[in-house]
Amino acid sequence: MSSAESLTPITDDIKKLLRLERLPHIWCGGCGIGVAMKAYIEAVLRSGMDVDKHVLVSGIGCSSRMPGYVKLDGYHVTHGRGIPFAVGLKTARPDLEVTVFAGDGDLVTIGGNHFIHAIRRNDDINVIMINNFTYGMTGGQYGGTTPRGSRTLTSPYGHIERSFNIPYMAASLGASYVARWSPLHYRELTKTILEMFEVDGFAIVEVVSPCIMYTGMNAMEAVHMMKTFRERCVINHNADLSKIDIPSFKEDKPIVLGNFLRREVPSFQTLYREEIIKKARGR
Amino acid sequence: MSKVEIDNRLLKPGVYFMRGNDASVEGALIAGCRFFAGYPITPSNEIATLMSRRLPQVGGIYMQFEDEIGSIMAVLGASNGGVKSMTATSGPGFSLMQEAIGLAAMTETPAVIVEVQRGGPSTGLPTQVGQGDVMQVKWGSHGDYEIVAYLPNSPQEMFDMTIKAFNTAWRYRVPVVVLSDQMIGHMREKVVVPPYEEIEIVERRRPEESPEEFLPFSNKYLIPPMAVAGEGYRIHVTGLAHNEKGYPTTDYETVRKLVTRLVRKIRDNERDIAEYEEFMADDAKLIIVSFGITSRSAKKAVRDARSKGLKVGLFRPKTAWPFPYWRLQELTNNGADVLVVEINMGQMYRVVREHVRSSEVYNMPLTPGACPSPEDIYKKIEEVYPR
Question: Which domain range does residue B363 map to?
Fold first, then answer.
């Protein structure tokens, strides 16, 4: 595939990978999670792999409900623990292509310790993180990604904490693959997920998708969200990751997107099989 | 019943002099364990240490996680991939695992946890013995569920019961705990590895229906067959209350059937699962109930009492849960009193009191850090013996 534009629509096939009997889904009209779900499904169909070898793992939250709608083996586990579950599954079953689909609160707030160590080990999993900058399912409390100054359910006077810069954090810890897209960039996101399947090691894409109900208690309509993306998103694959944090949606600062990083670094799972097991059995 | 998967790196049948924790590792490998995830904690460390050396020799993988939560979650992930997996820990780490144990119970994921007890509460006595996790192992996670806990009292039983734990976990699709203690884990003693053909190995029951017809949590079964990832069943597994298809639900009747089945699959089989040992208990006027390291002191105290003409016997539960209450009731129907000896302030004592109604039940509250000597127990026997 040479470019995102070469993708042709495959909507009918996508339906085959949906648990249609589970619809309607729980997501609010206009939420970006559905777009990311569709991008994942399209990537699975285009991956050329046996579809049955794709497995989804999620934690708790709006995004984590996604495996409940996709007709693949799916594991909806405890809050923040999707990554270690996925790592155990992938380590035991290297033939599977394991993808964690979850939110920011799940992956980097309650699950932050697993997140940083899985990247440090370079565990061979894919992580699609829907960053909505809040705890949507519980009504809009602040979390580790909430921009400073936001008014949320639990920061009624304004949020005073700093927020994580996800791509910068993942890159600094040694991830094999780091990207960031928005729901407006469906084709780019699909292509990115396809690349993530190919990568050995930890591959992450942050999908910037502010909660249209609660972000900063300034709920924006879906149309307004897409308009914001169109006006403010800048694609820069070579961006200085230390400068791409998203401090606020109110400020007119660019939202930098791109496929920032792809490293050829062997995963823990590859190294264990190629080095440790060989050494141990050789003795 | 299937057979031990032969690998020339497994411990060969024979007689060994082994530490309890090491015996647990060798048992696990023979049972088919090929994935271990853990976090260092005293006094269970020897299990992770030996696993890190032995697992890759048999083609398995050892992983050290950032904490016990990650460890148990990785074990559940591997189990759902169809690979027999385990972790080992002690009280504080076991506390961290409780939410995941609830997930394992709810999703019917087999898993083995070797819990080498130390003194508590909190950080407590990392290097000293305790038996204070009898209740945590039963009630540690929220909601109603049933799991199984074995109570080894020797390195031989660390070996045997680790194999049993895998069999029980994969037969009933539940997390199973080998509830050991610091002294049994660190003790070195004779361990006999029987000929492989004498070792029972249980594998999961596989689905027979086609993926279209298969209901992964069907109430048609008490223990539904288990599909694992990548087999084409496209299952949905969730910790939420779910229907037979595995989909989330809040329907009262559906949830009632699910939770009832999760509890019944152990309660209805408690007499097949529970194990116990009796020593001079038939004609006893006082029966000591004791397990793990304390049961060894208790046995000596029973002998001493018998040599002085006191009719004392020992009842040793080999499973804390399910607790073999029916046998204890039979032994006490003639009016025999009971003395519970355990290194805690009265945990199994409460269980015994719940089931023994017709006679006196005494206990010997013990704080952690030491095992009572046979003399300590004998003194208590003299104090409470019915005259």
Answer: 277-384
A5: in domain: no
* CA–CA gap between residue A244 and residue A253 (Å, rounded): 10
Q: From chain A, pick out residues whose CB is under 8 angstroms from the CB of B73.
A: 77-78, 81, 84-85, 88, 114
Say if A151 falls within a structural domain.
yes
A44, A52, A81: best to mutate for the B interface, most B CBs within 10 A: A81
Supply the mean pLDDT for chain A. 93
Task: Quick: pLDDT tens for B127-155.
Answer: 999 999 999 999 999 999 999 999 999 99
Rounded Cα distance between B111 and B104, Å, is 8
Domain boundary among B170, B198, B226: B198
The structural domain count of chain A equals 1
Q: Are the C-beta atoms of residues B100 and B74 closer than 8 Å to each other?
A: no
Nearest CA to A84 among B339, B78, B140? B78
ipTM of predicted assembly, 2 dp:
0.97
Residue A100 lies in a domain: yes
Question: Are residues B148 and B19 part of one domain?
Answer: yes
Does residue A184 lie in a domain region?
A: yes
CA nearest to B76 within chain A: A85
Q: B230 and A277: CB-CB below 8 Å? A: no
DSSP A110: I
Q: Is residue B246 part of a domain?
A: no
Per-residue pLDDT tens digits for B355-387:
999 899 999 999 999 999 999 999 999 999 998
Q: Do A113 and B67 touch (CB under 8 A)?
A: yes
Domain count, chain B: 2
pLDDT at B2: 75
Q: How far is residue B275's CA from residue B320's CA, in Å, rounded to a whole number?
A: 9
DSSP line for A188-241 = HHHHHHHHHHH-SS-EEEEEE---TTTGGG----HHHHHHHHHHHEEE-TT--G
> What's the domain range around A154?
10-282
Would B351 be classed as within a structural domain?
yes
- Digit-coded pLDDT (tens) for A116-144: 999 999 999 999 999 999 999 999 999 99
For residue A214, the model assigns a pLDDT of: 79
Residue B234 lies in a domain: no
- Give chain A's count of helices (H) and strands (E): 10, 8
